[in-house]
């Protein structure tokens, strides 16, 4: 069982996993702006186990924290996980940012 850590730099990347491997995706988020990352996976090869926000380490006003998504490779197959940065109340607008990671579970 291995754990892979991915960031915004991995946008568009194909990642190979083995069943029961974990993936942690760490995305920069500034909670005071109202923008928040969400995740959705196509297929059932991965399961989202946990999502949480870690505030900035420094007490600098306006500093960004990190949104962490922890997923587990559940079954062999290919899934695409899409992450969207948007304000929850702006459902009629396109996301500020979209990231995609393709996961292949062997």
From TrEMBL:
Organism placement in taxonomy: Bacteria, Bacillati, Actinomycetota, Actinomycetes, Micromonosporales
An example molecular function term from Gene Ontology annotations: cysteine-type endopeptidase inhibitor activity
Taxonomy, superkingdom: Bacteria
A Pfam family assignment: Inhibitor_I42
Organism: Paractinoplanes rishiriensis
Every Proteinase inhibitor I42 chagasin domain range: 18-101
Protein name (Swiss-Prot/TrEMBL): Proteinase inhibitor I42 chagasin domain-containing protein
InterPro entries: Chagasin-like_sf, Cys_protease_inhibitor_I42, Prot_inh_I42_chagasin
SUPFAM superfamilies for the chain: ICP-like
Record's keyword terms, sorted: Protease inhibitor, Thiol protease inhibitor
